[in-house]
Amino acid sequence: RNLLDRDTFSKSDPICVLYTQAIGNKEWREFGRTEVIDNTLNPDFVRKFIMDYFFEERENLRFDFYDVDSKSPNLSKHDFLGQMFCTLGEIVGSQGSRLEKSIVGIPGKKCGTVIVTAEELGCCRDSVLMQFCANKLDKKDFFGKSDPFLVFHRSNEDGSFTICHKTEVVKNTLNPVWQAFKISVRALCNGDYDRTIKVEVYDWDRDGSHDFIGEFTTSYRELSRGQSQFNVYDVINPKKKGKKKKYINSGTVTLLSFLIETEVSFLDYIKGGTQINFTVAIDFTASNGNPSQPTSLHYMNPYQLNAYGMALRAVGEIIQDYDSDKMFPALGFGARLPPDGRVSHEFALNGNPQNPYCHGIDGVMEAYYRSLKSVQLYGPTNFAPVINHVARYAASVKDGSQYFVLLIITDGVISDMAQTKESIVNASKLPMSIIIVGVGPAEFDAMEELDGDVVRISSRGRFAERDIVQFVPFRDYIDRSGNHVLSMARLAKDVLAEIPEQFLSYMRVRGIKPSPAPPPYTPPIHVLQTQI
Question: What sequence ranges are listed for the domain VWFA (predicted)?
Fold first, then answer.
């Protein structure tokens, strides 16, 4: 909207060029170009860009605008109209996945605005629930009847087949009815409705040498017709067919039901306006070492971030795209506070217990450095108070409009294990997830236990309703070559990768559907004024 006019006799002929940025060397690479729209300062570009989206990665984007003056593909031959920078998360995390931002880059000029919308491609999100039965299959066992099961394969581009599903075995029958099963359309046919699906019928044998009864082929499109005469298949054994003139089939397989279910995705909720609230809790216990010493994990090095700062930035910069007000509560635990030296396990880093919110990740960093100068590192290391702090907020909004992520950064040895487990089990019923980053050289065995990936966490005989804790040791991500950008991108990726699934598991268990997205943007219609 309102692009600069660079043509003398007519309006500009704009094109938009999209660049993406490599994580390591920060180099911008051209991703694609829109079409050129002639003679307008308010172009609605049609060409779309299809990109991979990962919640846990930060994808920097740059949109450059040019006024095209000739047929040359070389951009330096055209007039630059300005540019806009954002992240893919910013677009997706905006209300209705629609971001409007000013175009910048030409000093002293207003360059207009750009409106970017994102939509998730839907073809990959369906799953199907199918049920099959068979009739008069060949008898393969000497003593009883057969023990049949089905094996499904999808075909690949090169004509080979990949196994994608096996049914259970139905014992001792030539007329089995298999249980209904659910499979994603992507796994079944790679989203291509006409691609061949091969189904083999076997007779199960205990020793693993299952006997081949026969096979048939179909496709998603055929199956989607549901139960009908089209979905009764002859099971053919090519060897028998070659030998016997009168061979008809080795039985038939019939489709009993076919139901399509569209899986709702994390982005459906974000698009519908669900906000992700990010809270940080930092370990101020004495085991971190004196902040004025270079050996301390809290050392304030004027030239580079310490481990706490790095972990905070890595995770925070990605999550902040999904939080519209960018106000983050920042807490500390395990310190003695001024003026009276009382020990606190839940204090506001900005010194204001009524309003612990800091503006943006920069605000959190500032409050963290200020606290280091004013509080005394002490102990013990108690997690339960900060977990309960966030849980109190999460308990008040269970309608799916908000989800809470608590990042705890700690040097390790936890003092209130029993209380923390109790807090986590209680929190697993709430819309929240906990990320723990362990810094320093300590043994983090207790943290692995909280993570619950191997054994679901329990307290006093009650198990957590879902897995909500993700733990990583910071030291696994330190880049020996000193390239912190890449190592922090890897850290963020690993701790955030589980959040969308944890988020969805809460919504599913509670039966919360995404809110409808706000109506899509329609360009204003230019009314022509006529003089009468």
Answer: 277-478
- Reported as a pLDDT band with limits 50, 70 and 90, residue 372 is very high
Q: Are 375 and 368 in contact (CB under 8 A)?
A: no
Residue type (1 letter), 472: V
Query: What one-letter code names the amino acid at 74?
Result: N
| 3 occurs within a structural domain | no
Place of tokens 């923390």: 420
Please give the average per-residue pLDDT across 211-220, as a whole number.
Answer: 96
- Domain count along the chain: 3
Where does 11-141 have alpha helices with state H? 88-93
Determine the Cα–Cα distance for residues 435 and 407; give it in Å rounded to an integer.
Answer: 5
If we measure between CA atoms, which residue out of 18, 10, 92, 23 comes closest to residue 59?
23
Provide the residue range defining the domain that includes 133.
126-262
**Mean pLDDT in the chain?**
92
Confidence at 350, pLDDT banded by 50, 70, 90: very high
User: In this structure, what CATH number is given to the domain that contains residue 57?
Assistant: 2.60.40
* Cα atoms in the 13 Å half-sphere on the side-chain side of 251: 24
Nearest Cα to Cα of residue 240 among 277, 276, 211, 204: 211
Residue 181's beta-bridge partner residues? Answer: 130
Please count the CA atoms within 13 angstroms of the CA of 274 that sit on its side-chain side: 27
Residue 235's alpha-carbon distances to 136, 151, 241, 296, 459, in angstroms, are: 10, 13, 11, 71, 53
pLDDT digits (tens, 9 = 90+) for 466-478: 999 999 999 999 8
- In single-letter form, the type of residue at position 360 comes to G
In a domain, 531, yes or no: no
Evaluate whether 408 touches 436 at the Cβ level (below 8 Å).
Answer: yes
Position 213 in a domain: yes
Q: Coil, strand, or helix at residue 284?
A: coil
Q: Which residue has the higher pLDDT, 206 or 460?
A: 460
Query: pLDDT category, 530, cuts 50, 70, 90?
Result: low
